[in-house]
From TrEMBL:
Organism: Cohnella luojiensis
Name of the protein: dCMP deaminase family protein
Keyword check for NAD: no
Family in the record: Belongs to the cytidine and deoxycytidylate deaminase family.
Domain CMP/dCMP-type deaminase residues, every copy: 10-157
A GO term, aspect molecular function: dCMP deaminase activity
InterPro entries: APOBEC/CMP_deaminase_Zn-bd (IPR016192), CMP_dCMP_dom (IPR002125), Cytidine_deaminase-like (IPR016193), dCMP_deaminase (IPR016473), dCMP_deaminase-rel (IPR015517), Deoxycytidylate_deaminase_dom (IPR035105)
GO cellular component: cytoplasm
The keyword Hydrolase is assigned to this record: yes
CDD domains: deoxycytidylate_deaminase
Biological process terms in GO annotation: pyrimidine nucleotide metabolic process
Length: 173
C-alpha cells in the first residue's frame, strides 16, 4: 500500500499535468498554453490558446505580428524603449476558458494555467469569480503588477516550484 501512495500525484501536479496536456491542442508556433478550471477536486473546463473557431490559425495563415514599444524594465528613470513583437491572431487560453465556462462554475474555483497570465488575462480572471490562480512558467514582464492586482483582489496567486511538465508537452525552440 505504501508503494501505491508514493506513486500518486498531489492535486497541484495532477491538474497542472492536465493543463499541459490541454496545451498540446494549441497550433501556435510560439507557445502552447493550456488552462483548466477546478472546483474542489472536480475538473469543470479546459482551454488553450488559438485562433477563433472557424478561422485559420497561425500554423495555416502565419502569425499576425504587431510591434509595440514599451519602456525598458531597468529602472524607472530610464527613457530607453524596447521593441516587442506579439501575435494578435491568438486568443489566450485564459480568455477561452472564460468564454467557454459559466460564471456560477467559476465562483470560488481554481485556475491552473501553464503560464503566468499576462496583464489583460489577469484583469479578466480577477473579475471572473475565481479564488486562485496556479501557474508554472513565469511571465516576468507583467509579474509585479499582476501579483499586486491579485493581492488587492484577495486572490491566491502562486507558481508551482520544482514542477516538471509531462514529456512532449512543451514547444521546443
Amino acid at each position: 500500500m505504501e508503494i501505491m501512495a508514493a506513486l500518486r500525484k498531489d492535486w497541484d501536479t495532477y491538474f497542472m499535468d492536465i493543463a499541459f496536456m490541454v496545451s498540446t491542442r494549441s497550433r501556435c508556433p510560439r507557445r502552447h498554453v493550456g488552462t483548466v478550471l477546478v472546483q474542489g477536486k472536480k475538473l469543470l473546463g479546459t482551454a488553450y490558446n488559438g485562433a477563433p473557431m472557424g478561422v485559420h490559425d497561425c500554423s495555416e495563415a502565419g502569425c499576425m505580428i504587431v510591434e509595440e514599444f514599451e519602456p525598458a524594465p531597468a529602472d524607472a528613470s530610464s527613457t530607453e524603449m524596447i521593441k516587442k513583437q506579439r501575435c494578435i491572431r491568438t486568443i489566450h487560453a485564459e480568455q477561452n476558458l472564460l468564454l467557454f465556462t459559466d460564471r456560477v462554475d467559476r465562483e470560488g474555483s481554481v485556475v491552473y494555467v501553464t503560464d503566468q497570465p499576462c496583464w489583460t488575462c489577469a484583469n479578466m480572471l480577477a473579475n471572473s469569480g475565481i479564488a486562485e490562480i496556479v501557474y508554472h512558467r513565469p511571465y516576468p514582464k507583467d509579474h509585479g503588477k499582476v501579483a499586486a492586482l491579485m493581492g488587492q483582489r484577495g486572490l491566491l496567486f502562486r507558481q508551482i516550484e520544482n514542477y516538471v511538465p509531462p514529456a512532449d508537452t512543451e514547444v521546443q525552440d
